[in-house]
Amino acid sequence: MPDQQLYDNHGRPISYLRLAVTDRCNLRCFYCMPEEGIKYLPKKELLTFEEIERLITLMASLGISKIRLTGGEPFVRTDLMKLVRKIVTIEGVESLHLTTNGLLTAPYIQELKALGVASINLSLDTLDPERFNKITRRDEFGKTWSTLQLLLEEEIPVKINAVVMEGQNIEDIIPLVELTKNNNVSVRFIEEMPFNGEGNHYPKLTWTYKKILELIRAQYPTVLKLTDEPNSTSYNYRVPGYRGDFGVIAAFTRTFCGTCNRIRVTAQGVLKTCLYDHGVLNLKDLMRAEKSDSELKAELLRAFSNRPKDGFEAEKKRVLFPVMESMSTIGG
Ligand code: SAM
Ligand code: SF4
User: Is residue 322 reached through a cis peptide bond, with omega within 30 degrees of 0 on the bond before it?
Assistant: First the structure.
């Protein structure tokens, strides 16, 4: 049992940590990184596995029970499975999830299942290999697709993350919904945010969650609204008779901040209490300065009681404005 359940200064429980194990990646997705990539952190700047275990143990004792490993591409981190094996044994961790592009994931799927990993989010923005190549700047559609098939075969709960981009994959929206017809998969359409290492791609975001929904409703007028989980960031729907479901995530419009239960730790060990803040506490520096567990807990609690009300407030308070760092460094 946790020592206490965490609440922030706006009365929201904090129960979900998304931790980036690396900022490196084997793709160069248009919405996440410039074509030439980003300047990666030197390896010594990444949290070590021991530091990650210590942080998760501390946070779990405070009531953070859901953990997601992300990146960068988590499977690019050497020996990632050693960390996964460890995290599932940490007291208070009720569920472990991963977000991956699927390129290196297939060999580990059976072990992930055996370890009880609760779900995998797979990034797949298009079902067309050529568009995949254009969006990710790598000709690797086949690997992501095979990983999806394996996840479905092994019946590991899988959500597909598809970022919706003007002029890039609008024609994929309906085929991705169609994928839910015969597959027990949840497809989530995400508004594109300017976290791409180079700044805003458009003067104004056209493909908002409302517009994505309008396009889907025009094709499927009888679409059913599902009940969303209490802290869900997606509004979820099902086409009647389809096995899977789909959702829309207002990542840029930020309609879900009022129930946000999540915090992030970046690849360089910085705590973010909102995706749009600029990092509020350097946990790596504190650990490397040999702070005790109780000192670290006190710092965490201080940060949690200073959370911005929403992503707009967080963005306003940033030192570096506007947002443009790559999602790969933040941990999506
Ligand atoms: N490499 C892994 C992957 O792609 O699944 C994990 C890290 S990636 C940063 C996590 C998620 O963030 C992906 O699903 C990706 O689609 C999403 N993402 C990245 N940049 C984004 C952006 N600018 N706007 C919206 N979502 C973004
Ligand atoms: Fe890599 Fe994921 Fe970013 Fe694509 S979204 S470049 S796969 S970190």
Answer: yes
User: Shortest CA distance to 46 belongs to which of 64, 71, 27, 67?
Assistant: 71
DSSP 37-106: ---PPPGGGSPPHHHHHHHHHHHHHHT--EEEEESS-GGGSTTHHHHHHHHTTSTT--EEEEEE-STTTG
Residue nearest (by alpha carbon) to ligand 1 atom 8: 332
Q: What is the CATH number of the domain that holds 324?
A: 3.20.20.70
Q: State the CB neighbour count (10 A cutoff) for residue 199.
A: 11
246 close to 176: Cβ distance less than 8 angstroms: yes
- The pLDDT tens digits of the residues spanning 207-224 come to 999 999 999 999 999 999
Q: Decide if 6 is inside a domain.
A: no
Q: Give a yes or no: residue 4 inside a domain.
A: no
Give the CA radius of gyration of the chain: 19
| Domain of residue 203, residue span | 16-330
CA of 73, closest atom in ligand 1: 1
Ligand 1 centroid to Cα of residue 254, in Å, is 16
Whether this prediction's pTM lies above 0.90 is answered by: yes
Amino acid at 250: A
For residue 9, being part of any structural domain is answered with no
Does 74 contact ligand 2 (Cβ within 6 A)?
no
Number of domains in the chain: 1
User: What is the rounded (10 degree) CA torsion for 49, 327, 247, 182?
Assistant: -70
Quick: pLDDT tens for 252-275.
Answer: 988 888 888 999 999 999 999 998
User: Is 7 contained in some domain?
Assistant: no
Q: Give the C-alpha separation, 85 to 231, whole Å.
A: 27
